[in-house]
Design brief:
heterodimer; A: 112 residues; mainly beta; 7-stranded mixed sheet; 11 strands; 51% strand; B: 114 residues; 6-stranded mixed sheet; 5-stranded antiparallel sheet; 54% strand
Chain lengths: 112, 114
């Protein structure tokens, strides 16, 4: 089944404790991105990657890192999480020259 | 950059009635306008999209209209059913050689009243 998977789905952590949210897709998509979803703000792009070893900042990159060592994986790293990073996070992927994005199921993060 | 505004933020309609959600965009170069449906506990899923060379597109009970001059587009759901209850997002993007970036609206929570 073609899909985007994220792990974990739910995470509670404390301020400053490094964490990684994994994202994997099995559709051979070149383009992958991370969004955060907050009430009243919709979906905002954090980082994106157009291919292996090619990443760039989105609209709200502060406090986040990403890497793209393999085509199928695009982990999101919070090296020192803060309470304002409490949010619902989505990974998405698509083919390079097609606009349709496929979203993962989301990761709900609470930073205490 | 692009700015997409979406209204209303919440909408309740009686089952069987129609629902309309409206979005406006700011970048006249935007040429792709998708609508995503997000059910509880799931990620957004594309339900319909329209490109700037088309004024209207329909898929069964769902239709999208685009007014390029006024820079607004709308989602129309007819004969609403309980399974239509969800959060709906509009978005806009422009052709950018593979680096097309979707800018999303703030979402509309649609509730269908049985």
């Amino acid at each position: 089944e073609a899909q985007v998977t994220q792990n974990p789905r739910y995470l509670i952590t404390v301020t400053g404790k490094k964490l990684t949210v994994t994202c994997s897709q099995n559709m051979n998509h070149e383009y992958m991105s991370w969004y955060r979803q907050d009430p009243g703000l919709g979906l905002r792009q954090i980082y994106y990657s157009m291919n292996v070893e090619v990443t760039d900042k989105g609209d709200v990159p502060e406090g986040y890192k990403v890497s793209r060592k393999e085509k199928r994986n695009f982990p999101l790293i919070l090296e020192s999480p803060s309470p304002n990073q409490t949010s619902l996070y989505f990974c998405a992927s698509r083919l390079m020259y097609q606009e349709t994005q496929y979203f993962g199921p989301g990761t709900r993060l609470l930073v205490l | 950059g692009e700015n997409v505004e979406q209204h209303p933020s919440t909408l309740s309609v009686q089952e069987g009635d129609s629902a309309v959600i409206k979005c406006t965009y700011s970048d006249s170069a935007s040429n792709y306008f998708p609508w995503y449906k997000q059910e509880l506990g799931k990620g957004p899923q594309l339900i319909i999209d329209i490109r700037s060379n088309v004024g209207e597109k329909k898929d069964q009970r769902i239709a999208v209209t685009l007014n390029k001059t006024a820079k607004h587009f709308s989602l129309h759901i007819t004969e609403t059913q309980p399974e239509d209850s969800a959060v709906y997002f509009c978005a806009a993007s422009r052709t950018n050689f593979g680096n097309e970036k979707l800018t999303f609206g703030t979402g509309t929570r649609l509730t269908i009243i049985p």
